[in-house]
Here is the input.
Amino acid sequence: MSAYPLLDALAAPQQIRHFTPEQLEQLSEEVRSFLITSVSETGGHFSSNLGTVELTVALFHTFDFLVDRIVWDVGHQAYPHKILTGRKDQFPTLRQHEGLSGFLKRDESPYDHFGAGHASTSISAALGFAKARDLQGQDFYSIAVIGDGSMTAGMAFEGLNQAGYLETRKFLVILNDNDMSINPNVGSLQGYLNQIISGQYYTRWRDRIESAIKVIPLKGVARALTRLAKSSEEAIKRIAIPGLLFEDLGFRYMGPVNGHDANAVAKALQEAKAHMDDGPVLLHVQTQKGYGYSPAQQDPLKWHGVTAFDADAGEMRKASKSSAPSYTQVFGSTLTELAKQDQKIVAVTAAMLDGTGLNLFQKELPERCFDVGIAEQHAVTFAAGLSAQGMRPVCAIYSTFLQRGFDQVLHDVGLQDLPVVFAMDRAGIVGADGPTHHGLYDIAFLRCIPNMVVMAPKDENELRRMLLTGLYCGHPAALRYPRGNGLGVALDASLAPLPLGQAEVVREGSPEGVLVVALGAMVAPALEAAETLAGEGVDCTVVNARFVKPLDTRLITERAAKARAVVTVEEGCSMAGFGSAVAEALAEAGVVKPLRICAVADHIVPHGDPARLLEAEGLAPERLADRIRTLARP
Here is the structure.
């Protein structure tokens, strides 16, 4: 007998609309069981998906998502959605090269209406669907599912503001309230949600009054009572629920409802449907991250994103690990060390204390560590204010997430030449999280900003020196470094800053050979390729550029003028990247030599094993050797 009888028999999600209450409960149990078994083999986002099982089942019981539209914020909590929409058998390929994406993708399924990987986009996108529907004379429901962590971003409230102002019909926002983003939520909003929960009797009171008025047979009396109820509602609801923010924004607030009771959620969704012709509705659903799997419930942060694990024992399977510390660990420990010596150093992050290595800093210096929640734009301008008042802020944000704060980096930091350090973890290809998380564009969007210093270390010791350099260079500084372990090099006992804009020659070859100028994590592969070619008689000089800006134009142009050819190597996009900076410098100096820019081509890089993706992009050592070899031939 199948372990998943209902799930295996599900030919189309529309069948769920006819399920009995008992079947909804059984289907939820089967989806959760399958999720635990499958993700234990592949790894992936875990605790967030466990928390949305019943909500997803209830949504498919209430709506038809071949007609209706649903936008899952971020998308990393939509595995149950994928399981119910015909992709269950593909889960063994989850997040693997050419396999099932860990996020929603419009070209993967007709049920994936909008792709995402960053937070707080769902309300705006779902509102776009709703208004396009109205303009095109169509008729369907548009739904945004957003976590409470994502509600800390201003974009979510921009969407709420517009939807309420437009009095958008058949538009539903589901607030998945689980007290978490990745780290526990911070800020005033969480306290506000708790106030709503304690004051939930208000909505029950309002609905009862409305129902009582509707059954009054005398229309004149009913109208008079309706006017009286509306005039007194504002005063009463502010006593019952202080602020009532969502209603003030034009939404009918409903809830909270237990998000782990599929039938209760389905009933709440039906009730929401009944009110959606009058304007937008916000349904508050309470869930628990990791629900239904004890280890994940007890430690949802640890189980947010997992590698393969033993489901029965509740333990991660141990993989062979490098003895070298990760770049993240080295950054966190170095910043803490420097901050103990300088009381002006402060740290800022956007809901990523553990991911950026600032958990150590927070433990040692909590009063100087600021987690602002999922609000990268605020994080950057907050850091700018700290800097303007004489502090030395380090803004630790993943490369991919700093994209969200580009205007603030330019307008609030760059134009004012404020010394803020941007520590960009996960620069380059990151692997299983795929296109939305690859840190490939930071060089291109940062090097155009006036006053900005842009650096990338060849190893973890150079990372330490660059952090010190950035803190005291007197200008905005961006430091990009990869995910994963360092090279295991020795760390200097005492730190010294790098000369600003000075590259170093790490392999001296013949002046007439090939000049290879590598950046950051690509220095080691470039050296390996050069050693391979040396055995074939192809002589290479390898330069560790260190700085994208200011670029060491003197060293590069003088060496290039004598070289047979020039090759640049970077783990970033080819257009407007480091190679482009070198090409501009050579052109300005009038140096005309064969030039090959080895970078990520102008296309979307899929998810998959990082080594395989680097190979595909021509950035693995053997592929670099091939590309240099062909250029070096007379």
Q: What stands out?
A: The chain has three domains: 5-199+241-306, 327-480, 504-632. Residues 21-42 form the longest helix (22 residues).
